[in-house]
Amino acid sequence: MFSKNTAIMLYVEDVAAERDFWSAIGFEILNKTEMMGFETFDMRPHADSSLTFTVYSKEFIYQVSPEVIDMKPSVLFETTDIEGLRARIAAVTDTASQINSEPFPNFNFANPSGHYFAVKGI
């Protein structure tokens, strides 16, 4: 049986830059560790979230699982304050799109490694 918790792994160029970015837009940074000489950390979008992201250096993944390095997630976050969250993200990166109204209120942004994430207003 699967547990109630789920994690998504992100493979990035600069783990420290990612940690700073996600922390600046409100993610809770959990355990920061080192594996085989590479920094890694876990984070979640909300303190009560059962979804965790584990961030790994691409160089680490090349060594331990090179077959998955090109896999990129498509992640959709939800928020009750789409304008406030977009403003917070836009203050940290110039990749935040404008808020679209179709098919529902949404915008997207990229992290320092260039992965795009979507945000849905609820």
Task: Describe the model.
- The chain has 122 residues and is of the alpha/beta class.
- It has one domain (6-121): 2,3-Dihydroxybiphenyl 1,2-Dioxygenase, domain 1.
- Helices cover 21% and strands 36% of the residues.
- It has helices at 15-24, 58-64, 82-90, and strands at residues 6-12, 28-35, 38-44, 51-57, 76-79, 106-110, 116-121.
- It has a 4-stranded mixed beta sheet with strand order 1-4-3-2.
- The termini are far apart.
- The model has no long low-confidence stretch (mean pLDDT 92).
Oligomer: single chain
- The CATH superfamily is 2,3-Dihydroxybiphenyl 1,2-Dioxygenase, domain 1
Number of strand elements: 7
Estimated helix fraction: 10-25%
How much of the sequence lies in strands comes to: 35-45%
Number of domains: 1
What class do helices, strands and sheet pairing give?
alpha/beta
**Could you tell me the radius of gyration in angstroms?**
15 Å
Enumerate the strands of the largest sheet in spatial order, edge to edge or round the barrel. 1-4-3-2
CATH structural fold name: 2,3-Dihydroxybiphenyl 1,2-Dioxygenase, domain 1
Low-confidence stretches: none
CATH class: Alpha Beta
CATH-scheme architecture: Roll
**Number of helices in the DSSP assignment:** 3
What global shape is seen?
globular
| Distance separating the two termini | 31 Å
* Mean pLDDT score: 92
SSE sequence, one letter per element:
EHEEEHEHEE
